[in-house]
Amino acid sequence: MNAFEITGGIKLKGEITPQGAKNEALQILSAVLLTEQKITISNIPDIKDVNKLIELLGDLGVAVERINKDTYTFEAKNIDLNFFESDTFKAKGGGLRGSIMIVGPLLARFGKAAIPKPGGDKIGRRRLDTHFIGFEKLGAKFVYDSKKAFFNVDATDLKGAYILLDEASVTGTANIVMAAVLAKGTTTIYNAACEPYLQQLCKMLNRMGAKISGIGSNLLTIEGVKVLGGTEHRMLPDMIEIGSFIGMAAMTESEITIKNVSYDELGVIPEVFKKLGIKLERRGDDIYVPSQKHYEIDTFIDGSILTIADSPWPGFTPDLLSIVLVVATQAKGNVLIHQKMFESRLFFVDKLIDMGAQIILCDPHRATVNGIDKKYKLRGISMTSPDIRAGVSLLIAALSAEGKSTIYNIEQIERGYQDIDTRLRALGAQIKRVNADAPSH
């Protein structure tokens, strides 16, 4: 098993460029299945989840060509529809959460698909409800084959429909949009997600010949067309990486410039970090974070403790709450972190407490952080990364801590962060990859 060994307490300096957006990639790559014409996509992050999806597209029969480090062409002319019922697809599709995103385009273009049974007793498992209810409203029919543990989907007659989503799911909205662009008639999606990544998908589909209006709002109208063509698309930089680097600069008292951030697409992210007292300034399309010894958390106007909570876009993204929490541990003041969307995202705080942070885990969704104003440094420990975002939060904590830290299960971090150790070393971080077995406890 690979691990990171980090010697903390070192000030970093320099420029860092964020990778392409992981969450955008899973949608955009799936959309290549909507046409047999060539699509060129650039700024693709070289990370495991994305590479697995590209491999899956190749298995389906998409002609994939890598032009350079971050640019590929895709031509989905000869799709093997029998591949959906193969054991290979079941293994690869089941091992990649993002594989659900290929279902919408396949239903739209070919009128059928097969999906390995998701975990849980019924197909309407919470995180996939929105996808399947949307497909059914467009006219798709699901038939379960208990011998193969596959759902066969018949969508030979998709028709536009009015769809009111029960939650503003980003992947659910994207999947339904991709299914609707080739359906007959008009589809209206209300309570649609409106994240920049979804806007990117809709703009790309319109360049391919789709007719989508309302982009950027929570009410999308899609007039079905008969066929889509090829296009070129460049992905946004990853806003989660950008937020992670802002937090890292503050925690380590480092002077860092984050390059090419597509600032106008970051929403409230810079403002949330400013509420923690972090100085940052926009320089063109870069973010400059100066070295600062202290940063103080704002209070509400009446003097009460600040609460930072996640909510659907244009609210604060849940993927950055772990970063905000770890950064607050070294601030002056207190903050309540309220993670509404996921109930296990805060369970890594025990590691931060072991490092010396003062945090009260109120319940699975809320934690109160008592910032220690860098009166003493966090101390390095050995720890295991439970998920992508917690893993990077622990990495940031380790970079600021006194002494050596070891982070195990770094495969979780590398699912979402490309060459993170190499890029941090370029800023002066002492981080190296080692082979080590995780502790048994």
UniProtKB/TrEMBL annotation:
Phosphoenolpyruvate binds at residues 22-23. GO terms for biological process: cell division; cell wall organization; peptidoglycan biosynthetic process; regulation of cell shape; UDP-N-acetylgalactosamine biosynthetic process. Residues 7-421 form the Enolpyruvate transferase domain. UDP-N-acetyl-alpha-D-glucosamine binds at residues 97, 319, 341. GO terms for molecular function: UDP-N-acetylglucosamine 1-carboxyvinyltransferase activity. It catalyses: phosphoenolpyruvate + UDP-N-acetyl-alpha-D-glucosamine = UDP-N-acetyl-3-O-(1-carboxyvinyl)-alpha-D-glucosamine + phosphate. Belongs to the EPSP synthase family. MurA subfamily. Keywords: Cell cycle, Cell division, Cell shape, Cell wall biogenesis/degradation, Cytoplasm, Peptidoglycan synthesis, Transferase. PANTHER family: UDP-N-ACETYLGLUCOSAMINE 1-CARBOXYVINYLTRANSFERASE. It is found in: Cytoplasm. It holds the Pfam family EPSP_synthase. The lineage of its organism: Bacteria, Pseudomonadati, Bacteroidota, Sphingobacteriia, Sphingobacteriales. SUPFAM superfamilies: EPT/RTPC-like. This is UDP-N-acetylglucosamine 1-carboxyvinyltransferase. Cell wall formation. Adds enolpyruvyl to UDP-N-acetylglucosamine. Its EC number is 2.5.1.7. The keyword Transferase applies. GO terms for cellular component: cytoplasm. InterPro entries: Enolpyruvate_Tfrase_dom (IPR001986), Enolpyruvate_Tfrase_sf (IPR036968), MurA_subfamily (IPR050068), RNA3'P_cycl/enolpyr_Trfase_a/b (IPR013792), UDP_GlcNAc_COvinyl_MurA (IPR005750).
